[in-house]
TrEMBL record:
Pfam family, one: STAS
Species: Nannocystis punicea
Keyword field contains Cell inner membrane: no
Family matches, as InterPro entries: Bact_StressResp_Reg, STAS_dom, STAS_dom_sf
Stretches assigned to the STAS domain: 101-189
Superkingdom of the source species: Bacteria
Alphabetical UniProt keywords: Coiled coil, Phosphoprotein
PANTHER family: RSBT ANTAGONIST PROTEIN RSBS-RELATED (PTHR33745), RSBT CO-ANTAGONIST PROTEIN RSBRC (PTHR33745:SF3)
UniProt xrefs under SUPFAM superfamilies: SpoIIaa-like
Membrane-spanning parts: none
Protein name listed in UniProt: STAS domain-containing protein
Coiled coil, from the record: 66-93
């Protein structure tokens, strides 16, 4: 190697070293494409050239890994959003089904009916109770028929929820009557230790409505006639 070649190499090495430092700095902040642009298109066959080529290969693989990770993260975020949307849809449908399976009907003046279909767990009992209380207060209803004809089964827990519902309705000045009572339901209710003595249970919704109308008529007849001035 001539003296001129040595001088040229000594002048070029610091330049190549600073370029590599710039490459490392760009790669450290995720600017992989910009870092790769700093490499020469020609491979220098010297010790420094081997270092440059090794660093170029490393940054290329690091760039590919980073892009793959971003793709996976984006796919996970999209999947998570889809799951959240499906959960929201399921919750909305569940709420609508509960509303449809326990509608509150105005069957007569001052008389509401709540035909319950399916199972009656704690969460659903609370929902039905809250909705019924709001309707009772808004309509000033004097009687509410809770019909169990469509209920799949009544265990001790379900029966307890019914008793609490009846008690809550009574607190706002409304009398609740349980209808659609089968022999099994009647037996379950009778086994409760805190069953109200005035709890009214009838076998059909028709009988419940007739009972409410008869009680209303009897109450009107028993009321004292207004005195004339």
């Amino acid at each position: 190697m001539s003296v001129g070649e040595v001088d040229a190499m000594l002048t070029e090495v610091p330049e190549r070293f600073h370029r590599l430092m710039a490459v490392v700095g760009l790669a450290s902040v995720g600017e992989f494409a910009a870092a790769l642009d700093h490499f020469s298109s020609e491979l220098r066959e010297d010790a420094f050239g081997l270092l440059e080529e090794g660093l170029r290969v490393f940054i290329t693989e690091l760039k590919a890994t980073h892009e793959e990770r971003e793709r996976v993260v984006a796919a996970l975020l999209e999947a998570n959003q889809e799951i959240e949307q499906k959960l929201l849809l399921i919750e909305t449908q569940r709420h609508e089904i509960h509303q449809l399976s326990a509608p509150i009907l105005d069957v007569w003046e001052g008389v509401l009916a709540v035909p319950i279909v399916g199972t009656l767990d704690r969460a659903r009992a609370l929902t039905v109770t809250d909705a019924l209380l709001q309707r009772v207060v808004a309509s000033r209803a004097r009687a509410a028929l809770v019909d169990l004809t469509g209920v799949e089964g009544v265990d001790a827990s379900t029966a307890d929820h019914l008793i609490q519902l009846v008690g809550a309705v009574k607190l706002v000045g409304c009398r609740a009557v349980i209808t659609g009572v089968s022999p099994g339901v009647a037996r379950t209710l009778s086994e409760l230790t805190q069953t109200p003595r005035d709890l009214q249970c009838l076998s059909t919704l028709r009988e419940g409505l007739r009972h409410c109308l008869t009680s209303r008529t009897d109450a009107q007849r028993a009321a004292p006639a207004p005195t004339r001035p």
